[in-house]
Specification:
Largest sheet: 6 strands, mixed
Helix content: 25-40%
Shape: globular
CATH class: Alpha Beta
Distance between the termini: 29 Å
Length: 188
């Protein structure tokens, strides 16, 4: 039995990690051989990271804590949402992910970024709310942060939080899959 430890007990994050691993390693994984386990892990960066650097740091901290909690894991994964200020005036939200293998090799990945409208960023910057709280307040949708996420509301759920988190984990996991860089114009 092989284990992937996730630095969160949130069902959506565990589901996103499961989705990412089965997409990236379809021939290596089967549900009988691998289990995905969530553990409580602190990001160490506060409730709402306000830079991609803090988001990545939080993801790495969560992955390291998960590996420490489940030392027999083949991989540990941390996921952290972050806001980033671009060109001094545009706030973007994106998911940061870190994957650490049993040997301690780390890789990071980022999900897609989506604009945070001023009416939401103001609640975060001036009232200290987290993005999810601000989204729920402005949308009046209970649990929007866990179901759709900000990205789901902005994209009319074309991309939801599960998709966003899975994409970030896929980008981080890409370092651990075999690559053939000798291909000449063909598909990988």
């Amino acid at each position: 039995m092989k284990i992937v430890a996730v630095g969160s007990k949130r069902e959506r994050k565990i589901e996103a990690v499961t989705l990412a691993f089965f997409r990236m390693l379809p021939n290596e994984l089967s549900s009988e051989e691998w289990i995905i386990v969530g553990v409580s892990a602190d990001s160490g960066v506060g409730g709402q990271p306000l830079s991609e650097g803090d988001g990545v740091c939080g993801a790495i901290n969560r992955a390291k804590a998960a590996l420490k909690e489940v030392p027999e894991a083949e991989f540990a994964v941390g996921i952290e949402g972050a806001l980033s200020l671009i060109l001094g005036k545009y706030w973007l939200s994106r998911t940061c992910a870190a994957v650490i293998n049993a040997e301690g090799q780390e890789c990071i990945g980022l999900g897609p970024g989506v604009w945070v409208p001023p009416e939401i960023s103001e609640l975060i910057l001036h009232q200290g709310k987290e993005l999810g709280e601000a989204v729920e307040e402005k949308s009046s949708i209970d649990n929007a942060r866990y179901v759709f996420g900000h990205i789901g509301l902005m994209t009319r759920n074309v991309i939801n939080r599960l998709d966003e988190d899975a994409m970030a984990v896929i980008m981080a996991l890409a370092n651990f899959v075999p690559h053939d860089f000798s291909s000449k114009g063909g598909e990988p």
